[in-house]
C-alpha cells in the first residue's frame, strides 16, 4: 500500500487532468498532489473517480489488456460498454482510476487511462462537438489506519483497495482543489447540409462495388 501521513491529510489535494494526443483516441492523464505524504504511518491506496459523459468512453477490452500488463488499473461502472454506439445512444460511464506515486514528486500521484471519442450527430454550423469532462474526485482507502473523520468523508465505492485487501473496503473522499474545473475534448463532426451528398456517394460506391463483385462471379464462376 501507499503510505500516507494522516495527520497532514487535512491539507487537502490539488488535482489536474489532461487529454494527451489528438483525434478520437486519447490518453486521460490525472495527477493529484496530496497535502501530506510520509513513510512513517499506515498505508493507503489513492484513486481518482471521474464520470465520463456519453461522448467519450473506455474500451473494456483494451483496459483488460493493459491491466494484464500492469500498465494501468481501473474499475468501470457499468462494466459492459457498447463501443460502437454513437454519442446520442450512449450513457455516462463512471471510472475509478487507481493512481501510483509519481517518482518526481514525493507528494504526487498519477495515472493514465486510454479514452475514445464517440461519433456525434452532424452539426449545422460547426466542425467540432465539445465533450466536457468535470474534475475528478480524489479517494483514499487505508489498509492499516483510519483517517480522521473531520478531514475525509466516507464515499460509496464498490471496489477493493489496490493494496493488501482483495474485497470491498471503505473509501474516503478527500477535500481537493481542481486546477481546472473542467477539460474539453473537441470531437470532429460532419456538416448536416452534406448529408444528401454523402448518401448519394455511398449509394453509388455500393452499387459500383456490387457490380464489380457480380462481374467477377460471372467471369470466374461461383465463389466457394
UniProtKB/TrEMBL annotation:
Topological relation to the membrane, as annotated: Single-pass membrane protein
Keyword Manganese among record annotations: no
InterPro entries found in the cross-reference section: PIG-X/PBN1, PIGX
Transmembrane segments: 195-218
Keywords for this protein: Endoplasmic reticulum, Glycoprotein, GPI-anchor biosynthesis, Membrane, Transmembrane, Transmembrane helix
Protein origin, superkingdom: Eukaryota
GO cellular component, one term: endoplasmic reticulum membrane
Subcellular location per the Swiss-Prot or TrEMBL entry: Endoplasmic reticulum membrane
UniProt keyword Endoplasmic reticulum, yes or no: yes
Pathway: Glycolipid biosynthesis; glycosylphosphatidylinositol-anchor biosynthesis
Biological-process GO terms, alphabetical: GPI anchor biosynthetic process
Protein function: Stabilizing subunit of the glycosylphosphatidylinositol-mannosyltransferase I complex which catalyzes the transfer of the first mannose, via an alpha-1,4 bond from a dolichol-phosphate-mannose (Dol-P-Man) to the glucosaminyl acyl phosphatidylinositol (GlcN-(acyl)PI) intermediate to generate alpha-D-Man-(1->4)-alpha-D-GlcN-(1->6)-(1-radyl,2-acyl-sn-glycero-3-phospho)-2-acyl-inositol and participates in the sixth step of the glycosylphosphatidylinositol-anchor biosynthesis. Probably acts by stabilizing the mannosyltransferase PIGM.
Family assignment from sequence similarity: Belongs to the PIGX family.
Protein name per the record: Phosphatidylinositol-glycan biosynthesis class X protein
Organism, scientific name: Anhinga rufa
Amino acid at each position: 500500500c501507499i503510505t500516507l501521513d494522516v495527520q497532514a491529510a487535512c491539507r487537502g489535494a490539488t488535482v489536474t487532468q489532461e487529454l494527451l494526443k489528438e483525434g478520437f483516441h486519447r490518453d486521460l492523464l490525472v495527477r493529484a498532489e496530496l497535502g501530506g505524504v510520509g513513510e512513517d504511518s499506515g498505508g493507503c491506496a489513492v484513486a481518482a473517480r471521474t464520470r465520463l459523459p456519453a461522448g467519450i468512453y473506455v474500451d473494456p477490452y483494451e483496459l483488460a489488456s493493459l491491466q494484464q500488463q500492469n500498465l494501468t488499473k481501473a474499475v468501470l461502472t457499468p462494466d459492459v460498454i457498447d463501443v460502437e454506439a454513437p454519442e446520442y445512444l450512449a450513457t455516462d460511464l463512471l471510472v475509478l482510476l487507481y493512481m501510483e506515486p509519481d517518482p518526481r514528486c514525493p507528494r504526487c500521484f498519477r495515472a493514465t487511462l486510454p479514452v475514445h471519442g464517440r461519433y456525434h450527430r452532424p452539426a449545422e454550423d460547426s466542425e467540432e462537438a465539445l465533450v466536457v469532462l468535470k474534475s475528478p474526485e480524489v479517494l483514499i482507502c487505508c489498509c492499516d489506519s483510519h483517517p480522521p473523520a473531520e478531514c475525509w468523508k466516507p464515499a460509496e465505492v464498490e471496489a477493493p483497495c489496490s493494496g493488501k485487501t482483495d474485497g470491498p473496503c471503505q473509501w474516503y473522499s478527500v477535500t481537493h482543489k481542481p486546477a481546472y474545473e473542467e477539460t474539453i475534448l473537441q470531437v470532429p463532426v460532419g456538416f448536416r447540409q452534406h448529408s444528401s451528398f454523402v448518401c448519394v456517394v455511398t449509394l453509388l460506391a455500393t452499387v459500383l462495388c456490387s457490380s464489380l463483385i457480380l462481374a467477377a462471379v460471372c467471369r470466374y464462376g461461383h465463389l466457394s
